[in-house]
Amino acid sequence: MNRQPVWYEYNADGTKVCDENGVPIPQYHIPEELSNLTMAEKLLIRRFCPFIPSVHLKNGTMGLKGHCVCFPQDVNEVCNTLPQLKCQVVKYIREIGNGETSEHRFEMLRVNRVRVLAALRWLQIHNSEYSNINIDESNLDWMNG
Questions:
Q1: HSE toward the beta carbon, residue 18, CA cutoff 13 A
Q2: What is the pTM assigned to this prediction?
Q3: Beta bridge mates, 81
């Protein structure tokens, strides 16, 4: 069991829900809105998009490939309007396979509009880093259905 608080529940006025002694009540579980996201859905709701070339080393361990360089960039628009546009998402796609067969798990790349929007709404309420984001549902208009 995780012994570090994952999140705190908030009242309608923005204050943390507290016990009878005024101590905020920590929540140790990952909420359903976040726990069922696919990799592609996580990429759409993230606020920052670093690109670090990586390579598979051994037994699922990833390592850096080459040099990492940081460039100044204006991240205000990307970070404050979510979900990200499809064209803005850095493609983090690698073959996700089973070592015993050649079966691939492409379901990790599926995107469900309802799950993405529910996750963003939950984060906007419960995560201070997402409190001021603008949720633009039209950014998911590229999806059919």
A1: 8
A2: 0.67
A3: 134
Compare 65 and 114 and report the one with higher pLDDT. 114
Structure tokens of 32?
């359903």
d(CA 7, CA 33): 13
Q: Which helix (H) or strand (E) holds 92?
A: none
Confidence of residue 4 (pLDDT cuts 50, 70, 90): low
Other Cβ atoms within 10 Å of 26 Cβ, number? 13
Cβ neighbours of 46 (radius 10 Å): 17
DSSP H/E element including 121: helix 113-126
Which pair of tokens denotes residue 126? Answer: 């419960």
Report whether 51 contacts 25 (CB < 8 A). Answer: no
Interatomic CA distance for residues 103 and 48, integer angstroms: 31
Nearest to 82 by CA among 49, 38, 126: 49
Give the separation between CA 10 and CA 51, rounded to whole angstroms: 34
Paired tokens of 88: 């803005």
In tens, the pLDDT along 94-114 reads 444 445 555 555 555 688 999
